[in-house]
Amino acid sequence: MPALSAQIGIPSVSSRHALLVGAAALAAMLGIEAARPDADADRARRLVQQGAILPLAEILPRVQAVQAGTLIELELHYEREHDAYVYEMEVLDADGRLWEVELDATTGELIEVEPDDD
Predict the structure, then answer these.
(1) Backbone phi and psi for residue 57, each to the nearest 5 degrees, phi listed first
(2) Which candidate, 91, 81, 95, places its Cα nearest to that of 113?
(3) C-alpha distances out from residue 42 to 54, 72, 98, 103, Å
(4) What's the rounded Cα separation, in Å, for the pair 66 and 60?
(5) Which DSSP string do the residues of 27-63 spell out, in sequence order?
(6) Of the candidates 107, 114, 116, 115, the residue with the CA atom closest to the CA atom of residue 62
(7) Considering the entire predicted model, what is its pTM?
């Protein structure tokens, strides 16, 4: 009798591993860098240590002052439009509405706050 995971359509560990290896190989062939959360954290840590960006301990109270709620997602990226690193966050308010909040990661200044209707 097949394993329960096979019976309900969940790929086996070896199948999932093969899929991940295949996806990584395809990304490498196409020149796409795989997302590595630990690399992102290392980059953010390095930027904080260099004084290039503010730490989250200083950013999060500013976000709550602008839009109170639960932080759902946080991204740090460089935006050419602002010539700066930007913290982009999604915040869920008490009414269940999702908001996008962007702060300059170096100064902590508000760039934008708007409902996230995506």
Answers:
(1) -60, -30
(2) 91
(3) 14, 21, 28, 20
(4) 10
(5) HHHHTPPPP-HHHHHHHHHHHHHTTSS--HHHHHHHH
(6) 107
(7) 0.66
Amino acid at the residue 70:
T
Question: What is the side-by-side strand order in the sheet with 110-115?
Answer: 70-79, 84-92, 98-104, 110-115
CA–CA distance, 118 with 72 (Å, rounded to integer): 14
Name the DSSP class of 14: H
Q: Which pLDDT tens digits describe the chain residue by residue (118 residues)?
A: 444 444 444 444 444 444 444 444 444 444 444 455 577 788 889 999 999 999 999 999 999 999 999 999 999 999 999 899 999 999 999 999 999 999 999 999 999 999 988 7
Amino acid at 116: D
Q: How many CB atoms lie within 10 A of CB 75?
A: 11
Q: Record the tokens describing residue 87, joined without a space.
A: 């913290």
Rounded distance, CA 47 to CA 55, Å?
A: 9
Task: Judge contact between 30 and 40, C-beta under 8 A.
Answer: no
